[in-house]
Amino acid sequence: MKNPSCLDVYTLLMNYIWRTVKIVQKHAAEDLVTCQACFKRVNGGKDGGVENHLEMGKKLLAAGQLADALSHFHAAVDGDPKNYMAYYRRATVYLAMGKSKSALPDLSKVIELKPDFTSARLQRGNLLLKHGKLDEAERDFKKVLKSNPSSREEQEAQSQLKKSDEIQRLVGQAQSDFTRRDYGSAVSHLDIIIDTCVWDADSREMRAECFVQLGEMGKAISDLKAASKLKSDNTQAFYKLSTIYYNLGDHEMSLNEVRECLKLDPDHKQCFSHYKQVKKLNKQIQAAEELIQQQMYSDAVSKYESVMKTEPNVPQFILNAKERMCHCLSKDQQTAKAISVCSEVLKADPQNVNALKDRAEAYLQDDQYEEAIKDFESAKEHSENDRQIKEGLERAQRLLKQSQKRDYYKILGVKRTAQKKEILKAYRKLAQQWHPDNFQDAEEKKKAEKKFIDIAQAKEVLTDPEMRSKFDQGEDPMDPESQQGGGHHHHHFHGGWENFQGFNPFGSGPFNFKFNFN
């Protein structure tokens, strides 16, 4: 590993210590058992001790106490390395523990010590078959048939031999399907093979490769996970898993799997260069998400732009980055940019609920109420119980209704996002322009009066934070109908211009004010 981080060094170190401890524990246990064996042998002659261990082991095995049974059989093997029954019993315990890899060498030892022990040979054949070692398995089954077996053994050997032949044929077919790139047929053949050869890592790896080609990534992942356990030090399986997760845009899982590869082989070229890439990407995405948490949206957007530079070739990372940028721009009220980035996401992924919600919010900021309603409605179809969507949709519908009535922002000609200072500035300009005293013609004066009241009301609502926030939620604080029990704000204004004379928006006596501000 070129320049490992502390964490990686720590992980490797812990792994090494853990392995060493395990080895020491194992030897300690074996030494203890061996000691007991020596002690027994000294006390009760050679056979006494070994027979005793075999007897105890058998009882414990029958009682299902596998670990204890195993240590007695270890002792028996150590006490008499030529005792084929000791190996045979130990193999039985290994099988009961699901450790078929350890059982194989014990069965081979039994057969070497006692070549006519057919039932051991039959068992070895069955194990070899499960591991996908077909030629070796067939040799065992044929040998069983030649060594005058019992009729039950003969029957089993014959049917297993037939099965093995059938599988040999299927393996040939699967390989030629694979070479022809007919991955669907290869899979259907491999399914039958794996059904029998459950511990065969090669078939799993081949099927995983077919699934990748067929775009069935979930299935490829579960085959590769099995293969990584079936074959020890299977760095290739971890590397493949990491790249599949990476192409699915899952940087965290990708990092986990590539670390497993490097634990097995810290100098693995492919894994190491992939690790550096995933780690860099992971760091950038985490940083961007922290910025979003802190509501630093424009910094988060630039961080996601660098994510897209780090990985320009995986569509899923680009899409994820854009989805988060769409969110940030919408939150940051960068309305036009938000709508454009969210639309890019929705072009690639029309059912993306997050992008629909964020684009709807941006449309609301832009007074495009119908568009916002459409987005909230599509989002609702794909995510029925989302409270945010329900509230957003209701708000959009209220705002649409409101836009068809009076819109105080429009009256003053300011944006929804305007600060108080801009609102007052716009108000003063318009109040000057539409003051009724500026108009002589009766009709004109009447129109100006109405306009002037609207302008004054707009200023009152938009400079009062509580009234403004009500209005932004789609209520009209000046309209008794839309009031929810708070209708005291509009008393000045009933009865039109006559009642209005006493109200001075400029706060300096009756209405003969001088406009001395420019």
From TrEMBL:
GO terms for biological process: protein folding in endoplasmic reticulum; response to unfolded protein. Residues 407-475 form the J domain. SMART domains: DnaJ, TPR. Residues 145-164, 467-496 are annotated as: Disordered. InterPro entries: DnaJ_C3_Co-chaperones, DnaJ_domain, J_dom_sf, TPR-like_helical_dom_sf, TPR_rpt. GO terms for molecular function: misfolded protein binding; protein-folding chaperone binding. The keyword Acyltransferase does not apply. CDD domains: DnaJ. TPR repeats lie at residues 50-83, 84-117, 118-151, 235-268, 353-386. It is found in: Endoplasmic reticulum. Pfam families: DnaJ, TPR_16, TPR_19, TPR_8. Keywords: Disulfide bond, Endoplasmic reticulum, Repeat, Signal, TPR repeat, Unfolded protein response. One of its GO terms (cellular component) is endoplasmic reticulum. This is DnaJ homolog subfamily C member 3.
